[in-house]
Structure formats: structure tokens, C-alpha cells
Amino acid sequence: MSKTKHYVLILSLALFVFCGMIAVVNMDMSARTYDGSSAPAMALYEDPSSYDNSSADGAAAVIVNENLEKTASLNAVFSVVFNFRGYDTLGESFILIGALSGSMVILRKVAKRPEIDREEELTR
Amino acid sequence: MKKYKKKAVIVRSCVNVLLPLSGIYGCYVIFHGNSSPGGGFQGGVLVAAAVLLVYLGYGGKALHKTFSEHFLHSSEAIAEIIYVLIALLGIFAGTVFCFNYVFPGHWLETSVLMNDAVGYHVMAGIAGLLLLMLSSFEEPEAESTDKPETAEAAGEEGAK
């Protein structure tokens, strides 16, 4: 029984790794998205308003060009944090809940419990 | 005033000046999160600094009189529920989670309300965390008077 479990686990992990490798190869073969390698960095630093993002595609183009139409938000950066990445912010606040409950377990003043004889309980 | 310790007058008067400032500045950072650097997390932590200030100026007794731990924990959960409900309104409207459905383009849009909910949540969470940590400083007096024998026994066991 345990041997079959073992084999199933190995097989599923191998399948997982195989799918991941296929995805990596596919990503490598497909066309590159915009990475800004052709943009002159020093000129952009001196004159940010000259930035030309017409050649961008994919998620970068959506975030830069169509942000305000897609979210009807007033501020592009704020809409990235709370509209595009709303799940991320939700998870961050759940991390805070986790941290609080963890420190509650350690630091909370425990109410006085009746003393239990551990050995007696074990031998029972 | 007379109930609390009288010695640290300088610290207490500094705290009296800084307490309203920290509250107001934190609320400013939360409510202007949509158009300025900062936001819910940062402003919430700034407001929660009030717990530390009260502890510095007035001591642990006043801390437990001013802040209710139970209220802070429950308001944390309430803020999280508000966040999820506001974000879910987009799904009920037929689009996606976190969609700008409530007052789009207005200064009181969905993401601003979500930002306020995060600010409330972080404010309550960090304040509760600080309250927990500070309350662990001053417990041994009350418990040692009740059961000195068990404390000694525990110390002996630890030494062995």
C-alpha cells in the first residue's frame, strides 16, 4: 500500500516537473515582451517625458497605456495596487492576521488552569 | 492624572504633544493614499504608534485602561470583511474582483474605500500586536503573589 503511494507521488512530481519544463521551453521560444533594452537610460533619466512606450506589448502595455480606461481610476499607481493587484493586498493583510495570531499564542496571558498531572494522564 | 506615575514629567509632556500629531498625521496618510506616497499600511502603523506613546508616558496601567484588546481584535476582522465585501461588489456587478464599481472616477471610488479598510485593519492589528508585546513586560508581580510555590518549582525544573 505504501509502495503504491510512493510511486504515485514520484509519478505526479515527475509530471509536474515535466509540465514546468514544457512551459519554460514554450516561454523561451515565444516572442519577447517589451523589456526596455532599446531605450536610452541616461536620456530617460534626464528627460522622463520623452519616454516612448508605443512599442510595448503584453501586461506592460496594458498597465502603462490602458490603465485609466480599464479601471476608471484617478491614479495609475494606486490602481495597480488596489485594482490590478487586489488579491495581493488582501493576502498582505491576511499575513498580518497570521502574525497577530501567532504572537497571541506565544504572548497571551493564559488563564489559570487546574494543574494536570501529566504522568497520571499518560498511565491512564 | 494623579493616578499615574509622577516622575517622568518631561516624557509625559512630550507624549501629550505627540499623541494628537501622530493620530492626525496617520489619518492624513491613510485618507490621501490614493494621490500621495503612503497608503493604508503606512498610515495604520503611524496611528498605532499611539500605543507606544501612551506606554512611554503613562505606563502599563493606563495602556490597559485606554485600549481594549478585544475591541482591537474584532475590529481587525471587521475591516477585513469590509475589504472583501467592497471588492466583491465588482463580481456582483458582472465584472471581476476589485473592479472599480462604486463611484468610478469619483474621489470616493472602490480602491479608496479598500485603502481605508486596509488602513483600519493595519491600525487595529499593529495596535493589538504592540499591546500584546507590552503587556508581557509586567505580568510576574500579579502571578507570583498567588502561586509562589509553583513558580519556584518551575524554576527548579528549568535549572535541572
Which outline of chain A best applies?
flat
Count of spatially separate domains of chain B: 1
Secondary-structure element sequence of chain B?
Answer: HHHHHH
How would you describe the oligomerization state of the chains in this entry?
heterodimer
- How many helical elements of chain A? 7
Largest sheet of chain B: none
Low-confidence stretches of chain A: none
Q: How do the helices and strands follow one another from N- to C-terminus of chain A?
A: HHHHHHH
Terminal Cα span of chain A: 33 Å
- The helical percent of chain B reads over 70%
Please mark out the parts of chain B with pLDDT under 50 across 5 or more consecutive residues, or reply none.
Answer: 142-160
| Structure classification of chain A | mainly alpha
Strand content of chain B: under 5%
Strand fraction of chain A: under 5%
Give a short overview.
The complex is a heterodimer of chains A (124) and B (160). With 124 residues, chain A is mostly helical.
